[in-house]
Design goal:
The chain contains 4 helices and 5 strands. The protein is of the alpha+beta class. The radius of gyration is 31 Å and the shape is elongated.
Length: 178
């Protein structure tokens, strides 16, 4: 069994070296623990249990720390880099009508408001919150709130009877002569 665990240890290390993705190093630790038990002539079932136990413990308790440590210098690229950046609204954003565009740097993007009930006027400064497909999800930038046009709320939808009533009122009111 020592040879089996040694081969498993070497395979796990080789896979880890080739991928550098923190995928199999945990099993190398489990194989090392199983080798120690095999050297003590422990039963095979105990070696297997220790292999899986140590591998899973290493995976669950050290992987988050290792991922954070190894990925700290990772540079966000492409679309990921847009999240958190400021953008300028170039076409009014209205989720109800499904319209809106922003410019981030020198790139033009379709955009939608984070709040469905909020229109965002042209010229407003917004912050990119997330990306959904090919659309940027944005919210008004609180720091720039006083420096741009105020976002206008989306009007509540009207029923047919309300529209008819409004039309009749318009017809009844006198129109100025031209």
């Amino acid at each position: 069994m020592i040879i089996f665990w040694l081969v498993l240890l070497i395979i796990a290390i080789v896979i880890e070296v080739l991928t550098m993705g923190l995928t199999s190093i945990w099993f190398a630790g489990g194989a090392l623990a199983a080798i120690l038990l095999a050297l003590l002539n422990a039963p095979i079932w105990l070696q297997i249990i220790l292999f899986f136990g140590v591998s899973l413990l290493l995976l669950f308790f050290t992987r988050p720390i290792a991922v954070k440590y190894f990925n700290k210098d990772r540079v966000r690229t492409n679309v990921e880099s847009l999240v958190g950046r400021q953008a300028i609204v170039t076409s009014e954003i209205d989720n109800l009508q499904g319209i809106g565009q922003v410019t981030v740097g020198s790139q033009e993007w379709s955009a939608r408001s984070l709040d469905d009930k909020q229109r965002i006027a042209v010229g407003s400064v917004v912050v990119v919150v997330s990306i959904s497909g090919v659309k940027l999800i944005v919210r008004p930038d609180e720091q720039m709130q006083d420096k741009g046009p105020a976002p206008s709320p989306v009007p509540e939808p009207m029923s047919v009877s309300q529209m008819e009533e409004m039309e009749s009122e318009e017809m009844e009111s006198p129109k100025p002569e031209q």
